[in-house]
Amino acid sequence: KLGEGVLARRDLFLPGGEMAMKMASNPTVLQVGDTVFAHAGIDMATVTYGFQNLNNDVAAWMSGVTKTPPKAVLEEKGVVWTRDFGGADAGVTGEATHCRRLGEALDAVGAKRLIVGHTPQQAGISSGCGGRLWRSDVGVSRGIYGAKPQVIEIVNGKVRVLA
């Protein structure tokens, strides 16, 4: 049986709940200049569907307007769940394939890089795909690694990690 605290937290995050409503105002994918931000990754399916369409669909679901989450949110290789851009686990062949897919998507939207979270990096912020991918989840939460915060700074097209 779930405790009161667990049920209260669940209710906050259910579509239409207080936290879900706050989260609904944040984009799922955001492009700022030549940088794309996404929770876990993008591919040509995300680009073809359109960042704004995806953001609108997620906001409608989170706010309780629609009952079903968008397909891209549920897909194992989708914008929220993919681990394809998470790092070393892919191996050389997998990494090359993922970088090629990422390159196609970034080129299609005129972007130079993608910044993701989702897969904690024990050694801190890391990059891949020749600098086109930046992994920003350093596991700050005590429930993960309790790591010290790090941020990515982009000034005049140059990326720098601040720790």
Describe this structure in words.
35% of the residues lie in helices and 17% in strands. It is built from six helices and seven strands; from the N terminus they run ααββααααβββββ. A hairpin with a 2-residue loop joins strand 6 and strand 7 (158-162). The protein starts with a helix and ends with a strand. 21% of the residues are buried.
Low-confidence stretches: none
Structural class: alpha/beta
Percent of sequence in beta strands: 15-25%
Radius of gyration: 17 Å
Number of helices: 6
Order of the strands making up the biggest sheet: 1-2-3-5-4
Number of strands: 7
Through-space gap between termini = 42 Å
Mean pLDDT metric: 89
Shape: globular
Largest sheet: 5 strands, mixed
What is the helix fraction of residues, given as a range? 25-40%
Strand/helix succession: HHEEHHHHEEEEE
Summary keywords:
163 residues; alpha/beta; 5-stranded mixed β-sheet; two-stranded antiparallel sheet; 7 strands; 35% helix; globular
What is the structure about, briefly put?
With 163 residues, the protein is of the alpha/beta class. It has helices spanning 4-13, 18-24, 44-49, 51-62, 71-74, 91-108, and strands spanning 29-32, 35-38, 113-116, 126-128, 133-135, 151-155, 158-162. It is built from 6 helices and 7 strands; from the N terminus they run ααββααααβββββ.
